[in-house]
Specification:
single chain, 6 helices, Peptide Methionine Sulfoxide Reductase, Chain A, alpha+beta, two-stranded antiparallel ribbon, six-stranded mixed sheet
Length: 178
């Protein structure tokens, strides 16, 4: 049986691209969550006034890849979880690091992974990822879905995504799709 989790780690194009290359992941959809505005548009979310973050909804088979590994990939390969409300040049709460959990088990697993990575000093700073219960999720507009696959030569993507895919291959080689 499949499981779903919603994660935000900066630009959703980048996070989406990482998980589209992970074995056991069945689907990845870019969207918005974590805020109060109903049915937000990309332009509204980019304004930073909706409370929403750019997120991805990841559906995965926990028999093929456990949630702990989904989260380790999130922290290690998809973004820098130690920067508050920014990823690189993308600045604002809409680019915050956030895990939107849907069960007590997901919350506890996320906290355990964060504690482990902090105790191991995996990063140069402490993880600042927000843990919040998922209340509403809104799919992003169609032109945002599969963005890097549709626009592989887009300059922002060429600059931002290959380093993340390199980290995925380096730290999780057994999970990278051939």
């Amino acid at each position: 049986m499949s499981e779903t989790i919603v994660l935000g780690g900066g630009c959703f194009w980048c996070v989406e691209s990482v998980y589209q290359n992970v074995g056991g992941v069945e689907s990845v959809e870019s969207g918005y969550a974590g805020g109060d505005t109903k049915n937000p548009t990309y332009e509204q979310v980019c304004s930073g006034k909706t409370g929403h973050a750019e997120v991805v909804k990841i559906t995965f088979n926990p028999q093929q890849i456990p949630l702990t590994q989904i989260l380790e990939i999130f922290f290690i390969a998809s973004h820098d979880p130690t920067t508050l409300n920014r990823q690189g040049n993308d600045v604002g709460t809409q680019y915050r690091s956030i895990i939107l959990w849907q069960s007590q088990e997901q919350l506890e697993t996320a906290q355990q992974v964060i504690d482990k990575l902090n105790q191991e000093n995996t990063f140069n700073g402490k993880i600042v990822t927000e843990l919040k219960e998922l209340t509403d999720y809104y799919p992003a507009e169609e032109y945002h879905q599969n963005y890097f696959k549709k626009h592989p030569m887009q300059p922002y993507c060429l600059f931002s995504i290959p380093p993340k895919l390199s980290k995925l291959k380096k730290y999780f080689p057994e999970k990278v799709l051939a």
